[in-house]
Structure formats: C-alpha cells, structure tokens
Automatic annotation (TrEMBL):
This is Arsenate reductase ArsC. Gene3D superfamilies: 3.40.50.2300. It comes from the Bacteria. Pfam families: LMWPc. SMART domains: LMWPc. Signal peptide: none annotated. GO terms for biological process: response to arsenic-containing substance. InterPro entries: Ptyr_pPase (IPR023485), Ptyr_pPase_sf (IPR036196). Keywords: Arsenical resistance. Residues 1-141 form the Phosphotyrosine protein phosphatase I domain. CDD domains: LMWP_ArsC. The keyword Ribosomal protein does not apply. It comes from Limnohabitans radicicola.
C-alpha cells in the first residue's frame, strides 16, 4: 500500500511520517512525502532528522519535494493520501491518478516560532510520538479495513484516534 503524506513545505511533519511508516510498515506500506509549496532548496528540518535518528529510524534518502512529482503519469500509484498540516489540508490538491482515499491528520508545526532549538527538539519528539500512535493503528489494521472501499472511512476515523 502506497501512502503519501502532504504538508506545505515538506520539511517536518510529512518527513517524520514518511520515515516512520517506512520503518514500522513491515513491507506492507511504502510511504512518501511531499509539499504543496516547498521553498527553493528546501531540505528536511535538521531537528526532525535528529529526532528520527535518535529513535533509530533511518533517514537516508529523505528529501523535500513538491507534490507535483506524485501527480505525474509515471509516479507511483497512491492508495492513501494524508495531509498532516492544516494549510495543506485547505489547499486545492492535484487530481491524483486512481482517486486514492484521503484523510487529514493535523499536527502542530514543531518548527514554528522562535523557540530555542532544545525546545523545538522536544516539539519534534512529541510530534513523532503523536504520528507514531496513529501509524501504529494503521499498520495493525486487518486487511479488510485497508481495502479500497473501506480505506477512506478507516483513514478518516484514525484522525480521531
């Protein structure tokens, strides 16, 4: 099952979700992430990468990218698209091939504000834990709840978890 996590800049929350689902997905899931408007030369937030590494989650190959990469004809087919920030949830998304299930799992931006890095590092760790709670529920779902007909309802119900 291919899952795409969307955020505005694709530098924090969506990167955390991509890395985490690829780590815990046990080969059943392939996660990707993208942003609606990543900045020029955007890169994953170093504090996010640090939190992932401290949790033993691989960070190789993580990069910030535009959601346009996933709207192309040769892009991987997505089964599920999850917005993880409120800005991306309110934007007009591309038309995704195959009409995948969609859900919004909102998380506060751990990189926002002018707090010192040690405070932001704690925010990244808390965000990773919150994302992990929902993703654990997703990966532990029985196969029938991951079928195309049920996936939309299932993914949106997890937003309440």
């Amino acid at each position: 099952m291919n899952v795409l996590f969307l955020c505005t800049h694709n530098s924090a929350r969506s990167i955390l979700a991509e890395a985490l689902l690829n780590h815990i997905g046990a080969g059943r899931f392939q996660a990707y992430s993208a942003g609606s408007s990543p900045r020029d030369n955007q890169r994953p937030n170093p504090l996010g990468l640090q939190v992932l590494q401290q949790a033993g989650i691989p960070t190789e190959g993580l990069r910030s990218k535009s959601w346009d990469e996933f709207a192309k004809p040769d892009a991987p087919h997505m089964d599920l698209i999850i917005t993880v920030c409120d800005n991306a949830a309110g934007e007009v998304c591309p038309i995704w091939p195959g009409h995948p299930a969609t859900a919004h799992w909102g998380y506060a931006d751990p990189s926002a504000g002018d707090a010192p890095d040690e405070v932001k590092l704690k925010a990244f760790a808390q965000t990773l834990i919150a994302i992990q709670q929902r993703l654990q529920l997703l990966v532990n779902l029985p196969p029938e709840q991951l079928q195309a007909q049920a996936l939309q309802t299932t993914a949106r119900a997890l937003a309440q978890a």
